[in-house]
Amino acid sequence: MCGGDDWAEDRIMPDAMRALAAGQPIPVRNPNATRPWQHVLEPLGGYLLLAEALAEAQASHNKPNPCCEAFNFGPMLEANLPVRQLIETTLEHWPGEWNDLSGAGAVHEAGRLHLQIDKAHHQLGWQPFWAFATTVRRTVAWFQAVHKGGSPIDCCLEDLRAYESALAENCAY
Predict the structure, then answer these.
(1) Contact assessment for residue 73 and residue 43, using Cβ atoms and an 8 Å cutoff
(2) Which residues have a Cβ under 8 Å from the Cβ of 159 and sit 6 or more positions away?
(3) Cβ neighbourhood burial of 151 (10 Å; 0-12, 13-18, 19+)
(4) If you count DSSP H runs as helices and E runs as strands, how many of each does the chain have, helices first?
(5) CA atoms of 168 and 140, how far apart (whole Å)
(6) 55 by DSSP, 3-state: which?
(7) Spatial separation of the C-alpha atoms in residues 3 and 1, rounded to whole Å
(8) Which of 14, 41, 120, 156 is deepest in the core (most CB within 10 A)?
(9) Is 76 helix (H, G, I), strand (E, B) or coil?
(10) How many CB atoms within 10 Å of residue 78?
């Protein structure tokens, strides 16, 4: 998951942003692990769409409600990429270096994570709109702006406006 204002420890983007802001190499534990990279606004949009579907079903007393189930809101399959590619794309926007910390003594991590989003697409009409490149670019821009003294809330609102614009352009939902 990517997006601004995530400062959690031992997460690749927050760790990368902290390292770059400090002028240090990015520590990378498993550069070949693949992950489903998406901006945090993507699943949030899905959750809101699901809430709307649940509210509509509740109001019309539809039973059984097919929306009362678990849904995955993830990126398109092509955004399931290695950590190495995330870091290299990040460095296109905020130049720096990275260190490969993988090795025999490294902490075990899953080699591949993936989310099936077919159900959300078919039952709710949901789909992600920001490509991997947009996700990384907007995430790095958020952290750079805050690093330079920008307001975190203003940066979040700018991302939200950009995401709403992307939805409108694509006639979403």
Answers:
(1) yes
(2) 3, 4, 39, 41, 138, 142
(3) exposed
(4) 6, 4
(5) 23
(6) helix
(7) 7
(8) 41
(9) coil
(10) 8
DSSP state of 79: G
- From 107, 94, 106, 103, select the one nearest 24 (Cα to Cα): 94
The percent of residues above 90 in pLDDT, for the chain, comes to 68
Ranges of beta strands (E only) in 15-144 are 26-28, 34-36, 80-82, 98-100
Each residue of 134-165: pLDDT tens digit?
A: 999 999 999 999 999 999 999 999 999 999 99
Collapsed DSSP state (helix, strand, coil) of residue 59 = helix
Residue ranges of domains in the chain, CATH in brackets: 12-169 (3.90.25.10)
Report CA 76 to chain centroid distance, whole Å.
Answer: 11
**Which of 92, 81, 86 is closest to 13 using CA atoms?**
86
- The model carries a pTM of 0.88
> Which DSSP symbol is given to 58?
H
Higher pLDDT, 85 or 8: 85
